[in-house]
Fold each of these.
Amino acid sequence: MLRSLRGRLIVLLALLVVAAGATAWLMVGLFHQSAAAQVGQAAAENARACDAIASAYRLHSADWGSAPPAPDDTAARGRLSAVVQNALRNRPGVQGGIWHGDTGSLAYAFPTYDGAAPRTDPPGGELPRIREINAAALSSDRAASHRYGARSQTLLISACPLPGPIPHLTAWTMTWTFTFAGRSYYQLMAGQAVLLVTVLIAAALLTQLTMTWSRHVSQIETALSSYDVADLPVLPPTRERELDRIVLALNEAGRRLSVARQRGDTLARQMATAERLAAIGRVAAGVAHEIRNPIAAMRLKAESAVAGGAERQPQALRVILGEIERLDALVRRLLSITEHDEPKRELIEVSAFLEACVAQHTERAAARQLTISSTADWQEARFDPDQVQRALDNLILNAINAAPAGSRIEVAALRRTEALVLSVRDGGSGPPADIQDHLFEPFVTGRPDGTGLGLSIVREVAVAHGGTARFVSTDHGTTFEITLPCPTS
């Protein structure tokens, strides 16, 4: 997957989504930590405000001596409200008062209230909670605090006992702190929105990039696959800078390839012409050489018969007829190379076929003190027996002429994958190195008395059967092979 551009972009998009999710989760976590810290800070500030009321009350009650006012004294309530007002004047958002365990609220103040008219009474909706926290502080004789969470803010209430001449008094404070509202909350929402928009834009851009690149690459692939390799198409620009660089390089490579192909075709035609002319020259030279010698011999015998009288004419005619037979054999062998007859395939028993071929040359081999044998790995195969026998005859005759006395000639039929390999191996040193590259061309021979047509016939027979002919030279002798694609049915 990571080996393709599409896969990498998909992985990049997935990583971006994961990173955005982790960032959003971290932002929410930090916000909750910040909200918790804010609530804790507000709770501490609320408790300090309660302590401030208690301190102010102690200073105020010190002037009463042993005759404290009654809890229902209106003037005393007004002075206590002033005490609370003074204690909370520098504490924004904090409201509070003094509570009597039997009669309820004795004093109340909210000096930092932003409303048009100042508040003079505790909020009615929170009176049960105010009563509860004061009762808890009074019963435990120590400070108490409660938190009441709402959807967007938290209510903090604190109370502390007020020792003094009036029994059952407590001071209380109350404040609201915003958790899922206010500046921090809106900053969180704005950050989340920006993060979401960024991820969506990045996803859209990556998706568009992936689809655009995939479409352009598919177009380039289709254009290249619909043309032959030797004739690359001219690709249109994609309007993608990086892809257009590749397109321009491919177009330039196609142009150079076209020029090189044209130049190569020209050179190939020139080389083919040169090789054809060279082959024609070699054939013409070989034919001229092979014909000139018999003609010279016939001319010499004819001139001798004319000059010598009637007694020399019979011998001269016999020599002339022999040379004519030699020329006729040469013409027949040339025709066998040029006719290219279609093989008449038959189902042949390979071992018997090789034995018959070898039997025709046993006496000739024995005359040169050579042993000739045959082996076959195949049982039956389909080929033209006349053509293949003619090819094997030429190879066996060459082996008899090249093998040293006392050596062995081996004729074999081998199975090589789906082909029949006919091989003739002798102990000779093989043809000269300077003619090995042209060994199967007409009139190429390493023997002074050879015509150079035998191996040409071998190659033509192999090619006619859809096969090949080759020469293999080793330190242990020379082998000629005919490889024939030969189905068994």
Amino acid sequence: MGSASDIPVIEKGVKVLDELGIPYEVAIASAHRTPRDVEGYAVNASKRGIMVIIAAAGLSAALPGVVAAATNLPVIGIPVKGGALDGLDALLSVTQMPPGVPVGSVGLNASLNACLMAARIIAINDREISERLEAWTKERASAVAESRSKLA
């Protein structure tokens, strides 16, 4: 994430990673204030066993793009609400990447969806994660059905 102020945004997402038993790292690095740290983190991520990088950033939200430029790992950007445009600038920055520098994007502050997308990517080659993810999804579907029955 770009700064400590983004921590509340990622909490819901990392909770699901914990529930699914997927190990993760949380780091703070700014594309504008610590660009060398960002590049070093991205370049060395695969050597540490990282399979997907999720980058949360607000305002100009350069972090996901800078990370994607430095690695061939999948990068998922979380645009963070805030600033004069209430996150619209971050959303556009994350989604409007130049050709050859792909960043997957989720909605504003949508760390849960970012982490679920990362889990799905990892599950492609990991049967255990795939089974846990399927069970997690079924539990959520059951909860919706249960809440519907309470209305009747």
Amino acid sequence: MNPRFLLQSPENKPRWLVLFLLAVTAAFGIAVTTVYFKSALAKLAVDIAQNSLSLSVDVTADRHSISPDIYGMNDVIDPALAKELAIPVARWGGNQTSRYNWLVDSSNSGDDFFFVGGGDNKNPVPGDSSDKMVKTNRTNGSKSIVTIPMIGYVNKFSTWNCGFRVSKYGPQEKTNPYIFPEGDKCGNGKRPDGTAIADNNRLDVSIVSDAAFQKPWVQHLVKTHGTAAKGGVQIYQMDNEPSGWGNTHRDVHPEATSYDELRDRTYQYASMVKATDPTAKVLGPSDFGWPVYVDSGVKGDREKHGGIWFARWYLQQMRAYEQQKGVRILDYFDEHYYPVVDDLCLANCPVGDAKTQSARLRSTRSLWDSTYTDESWIGKSNPPLTIIPRFRDWVKQDYPGTKVAITEYNWGGVESMNGALAQADVLGIFGREQVDLATLWGPPKSSEPTAYTFRMYMNYDGKGGKYGDTWVRSHSTDQGQLSIYGSQRTSDGALTLVIINKTSQNLTSNLSLKGFNPGAKAQVYTYSEANLRAIVRQSDLAVNTAGFGATYPANSITLVAIPKANS
């Protein structure tokens, strides 16, 4: 047959249908070939990455204690989780505690919730809610952190009230849709045009509070629960995020908090706590983030204090007090830290889209990595944040012997595997970088994935199996894909490794081992998207003195527990 017949009719006209089908067939072939090559290239990239991945552990190097207090949480903690894990530290803190009046057992939420204070309690028992928290913590084996208000005003009433009633201050930008004290509306303290109401009476719903007012509460806590040395309140926090008072609590403290004000208030309240219970520890300044590590909100304040960063000047002043008075009134240098990435929501937010999830996993590097530029406005004008090494360096230079704490942090996505991976990374970093105390803000429910992150470190086998308490050198050639955190348990000498696969692919890697003689096969436990309701024990893994090879499931946390040989 003449091939032209397929393409042209006897009248020499093109056969369009045949030509169309040939074109479609050709296009399909090209598309299939393209997909094949893309798939092959992707697989090749994964293979290359896996071939370059390696892990190493040297049990003899970089050894230091891992504080059990890094696994703490803020209230309100899921009771089942708190009991199961015996959360080591539970913090009673947050914005509302700045205005807590122990005598009427109530506080004020400030700008967080229309400056609403009080509640339904017409017959308050002094200190009841804080006492219940301390008692619960003692039952669970948890240390208590209690926040002492330093702001100068505390809530006046135990019943519902609010700082900007519409009946007194007129129409406002927004009003509370749920609470109506005595039938009145509670405003947000801003006029309809958005300008702040600045002429309010600070004593509308608050009373003046000073160190003398707070002392009977500390005495009550000691009398009720014992001294810190006898199981009472172990740590007192000097208020909460004082640089935020001028915004959050502007109805009673509209002024920005200065260098001198924070120093003077801390001297007064911290010395009172130490005099009342010398065995207790004090924690501060507990401020909210990078901008106030650097400077106060008072214009020209840093320049007036020699250009020294606010946080460092604070440490220096606490040291000066001890040098002058012979009493240490600051035991923990504490700051809050929440990750920020431009145009995305990480901290205290749901898991988000793929872009957000990737950023969440990268952003843990801001805690330690000197090669990582923070992906926010902060990173554009500042050196790498290296938050924890920076804090430790400040303490070393400005007030040696002070411990480092982070009593508020949150990487978000607690309801997701992505959030669980980030939290696992953070806990490993806290141990490696020698944080002394940390409490997660917005803790997960017992059934949520991030709760399983804590179980991987604190109860991986359901029988009390714990990640070790002594850090050992552990390294990954690509921490962004496969993180490793190594430790040794004092109780039985076992080597415990937390290995986190942050990718959507199974990853295979060899691990080289030095300075450890395995006594038996390793136990392997995995938490992954394959089963979000349980930590799954895998087949035991053969290990020798040189190490082992293993495959880690996509988006997973693996704990490897290697028994130590009898000497």
